[in-house]
């Protein structure tokens, strides 16, 4: 299995669409975390690791990702997804 490099800026732009921004804090138990420990933290890599699919548009330039029949990255063909800042 391979590693696929993901453009961090493109990923963040794609991930945080209006629907996600609207419910992100609740979906990630931010309120509860702040109440219990005073800290709410999530990394971009954690968000990437939790994705069920990725569009080809977030893949770092210079790679030829394996695409499934839905036009998305075939995530089963990769062992690791790594964010890169370009």
Give the SSE layout.
Layout: E1 2-7, H1 8-15, H2 18-27, H3 30-37, H4 44-49, E2 78-84
Parallel strand pairs: 1-2
Q: Describe the biggest sheet?
A: 2 strands, parallel
SSE pattern: EHHHHE
Give the averaged pLDDT, no decimals: 94
Termini gap: 24 Å
> Strand order, biggest sheet?
1-2
Residues in helix, %: 25-40%
User: What coarse outline follows from CA principal-axis ratios?
Assistant: elongated
Strand content: 15-25%
Number of helical stretches of at least 4 residues = 4
- Uncertain spans, ≥5 residues at pLDDT below 50? none
Taken together, the total number of domains comes to 1
Structure classification: alpha+beta
What do you see in this structure?
The chain has one domain. Helices cover 37% and strands 15% of the residues. The protein has helices at residues 8-15, 18-27, 30-37, 44-49; strands at 2-7, 78-84. Strands 1-2 form a two-stranded parallel ribbon. The chain is elongated.
Task: Give a brief description.
The protein is built from four helices and two strands, in the order βααααβ. It has helices spanning 8-15, 18-27, 30-37, 44-49, and strands at 2-7, 78-84. The protein starts with a strand and ends with a strand.
Keywords for this entry:
elongated; 4 helices; 86 residues
């Amino acid at each position: 299995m391979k590693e696929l490099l993901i453009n961090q800026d493109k990923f963040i732009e794609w991930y945080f669409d209006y629907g996600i921004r609207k419910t992100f804090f609740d979906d990630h138990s931010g309120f509860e975390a702040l109440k219990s420990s005073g800290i709410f933290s999530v990394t971009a890599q954690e968000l990437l690791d939790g994705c069920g699919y990725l569009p080809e548009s977030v893949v770092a330039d210079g790679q030829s990702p394996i695409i499934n029949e839905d036009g998305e990255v075939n995530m089963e063909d990769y062992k690791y997804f790594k964010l890169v800042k370009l």
